[in-house]
Amino acid sequence: MSPSVETPHTLEYRMEKPPLPNDDYMSVTPETQLDSLAGEDSQEGIVEPPARDGWDSKLEYFLAQVGFSVGLGNVWRFPYLCHQNGGGAFLLLYVLLMILVGIPLFFLELAAGQSIRQGSIGVWKHISPKLAGIGYSSCVVCFFVALYYNVIIGWSLFYLGNSFQYPLPWKECPKHDNITVKECAASGPTTYFWFRKALNITDSIEQTGEFNPVITCCLLAAWTIVCLGMFKGIKSSAKVMYFSSVFPYVVLLCFLIRGLMLNGAAEGIKYMFYPKLEIWGEVQVWRQAATQVFFALGLGFGSVIAYSSYNPRSNNCHRDALTVSTINFLTSVLATLVVFAVLGFRAREVAMRCVTHNLEKLSEQFSVGPLDRDLLPVINISDSSSDPLEAYRGWFKVHGANVPGNLTDCSLENEMNKGVEGTGLAFIAFTEAMTLFPGSPFWSALFFLMLLNLGLSTMFGTMEGILTPLTDNFKVLKRHKTILTVCSCIIGFLIGMLFTQRCGNYFVMMFDDYSATLPLIIVVVFECFSVSWVYGADRFLDDIEKMLHWRPPVVYKYLWKYVCLLAMLGLLGASLLKMCFKRPTYTAWNREKASEETLDYPDWALGVLAVLIIFATLPVPLGYIHSTLRNRARRNSIGSGLGTDMGGVYTKCSTVECDTPVAALLDEHLERNRIPKDSPSPLAEENLQLLPQREGAEDVEDSTSV
């Protein structure tokens, strides 16, 4: 055995556990020997490839993982789910699922990437070549997500550019010949600016419309920023993370402090945390909570594996899993506090406008007709010592039905119940609230700069989930990684122009709802099954113990084998049932009605949905089939070669330990590759299986030439 090699640019480590027996038993190279040859006795001195990059510091890695996992969903998806599904009760359910499912699966991906030091394709190929398709599916889903995610970054750039003017362009409705535009008057200035000025949207997905030149330029700028940030891999993107991962927290804290000082913030936060425990009995709530945990941690994308693969093997990935998951949850809670404080202020302003409008109507009716003066409410809008909203609502409950004029109950709760999520929250509701702030351009620029950085940090991780597996498995791409990065961004921009049409927002919703959800759930189901049942949970824990020099709690074994796997299968089943029993729909903007409406996807759009889902999941069965056929072809080829070397015949043999030319040749092969005969290595096992006898068989077929 050659002694171990130590240089300043290499890192010595030992693979204490061999990989699973696989079908690629003859593909032995110095690189595969590093990861797949077996036995402690034979593995001393294996040297890690010196060419692999690494993080310059633990802080860079930590910021990268936090930046990827904390994204736009924490700001505009989690608050909506919390609002719609029982407030504090949903938080408790989310924490429960995070502990039982999220953290164990997150730890699994961190440990797999750090132990094997490969991207998603290499990790699952290492466990078994038949599972390589899992990594390719992750790459496809990452590409789908990158296509539409960068469009959202482009929208943020558009709003950021429009924030540097006073008053903000979405504060008031435009006028033509001193007449307010009808669509804006019926919907509101912020809604009108989003649908008409920013998107110039069509009435349905079937009306394509021309390209939006401004949004197209913003998309080009977004891809340019991503390309520059990824130009040198993690060496360049990690430096950007120092700002893009930290800056959103500064902005959220500023908004929280400012929001708590607003009138109505307390009502908004109280509304958020009020628990409705009865929602725990609804399957839909469990499905939404599990889906949010799943996406919040970025499971299945391969980005977590890619980032952790650049770590030293001694890094405490268990502590990283707990820390990143906790920060992710606290960030969601912080964002929810900010959103509900600001939306509470907005709801109160809308309710007060309603009170003012109704009081004006009452004054007009009393001035033109004989009405009982005792019915007129005594409310002083400008009196800060009293609450005019509560006074009006108290009056309305007693006298509202007795007064003509179709007055309304100006309820703050009704305004808060109008839950908004996604683009509706970021570009309409929150944007409207900021127009009411003193110094609104400053707050607007701060908010959209925060969205830009949240999107970029997630985009860096998504692109790393594509580039790292490909460069790890294809040497040509590794030698030209910069060209691969640039070409990927160019292709992403060209395909992304689909989303810059006037109907582009509908395609963004389609990709967001369907292109990633089902494929990622399927990927994570295979990941969990592969590690816990194919590779073996105990074996995986042994590998972690040798890597970290301490053994994780045994509870992870049962969580991986049963709880996580069953939870992901349940989530997959619930998602499939929802798609099967309810035709997929989307929210469209009707220009004539100046309001949103729910429409069914046309048949051709359903075909696109099916193609997206199939294309993303197809690599899993294709990888299995390809590996099986390749193994069969190699087995035949090896058998043919051995038979030819032996003069065209095999020698009959009734036991494995027999002195035949075939056995001698196999012994020579094992010795040449420094593999012990008693090693559980796939090389030893699979080569011995080439012998034409079966264990325990008394009669052996006659030898034939090949």
Automatic annotation (TrEMBL):
Keyword list, A-Z: Membrane, Metal-binding, Sodium, Symport, Transmembrane, Transmembrane helix, Transport
Compartments, record wording: Membrane
Gene Ontology CC, one term: plasma membrane
Binding site for Na(+): 67, 70, 74, 328, 454
Recorded superkingdom: Eukaryota
Coiled-coil regions listed in the entry: none
A single GO BP: sodium ion transmembrane transport
Chain positions covered by the region annotation Disordered: 1-26, 674-706
Membrane-spanning segments: 91-112, 133-160, 213-234, 246-269, 289-310, 322-343, 442-461, 482-500, 520-537, 558-577, 604-625
Keyword Plastid: no
Keyword Disulfide bond applies: no
InterPro entries per UniProt: Na/ntran_symport, SNS_sf
Membrane topology: Multi-pass membrane protein
SUPFAM superfamilies reported in the protein's UniProt record: SNF-like
GO molecular function annotation: metal ion binding; symporter activity
Family membership noted in the UniProt record: Belongs to the sodium:neurotransmitter symporter (SNF) (TC 2.A.22) family.
Descriptive protein name: Transporter
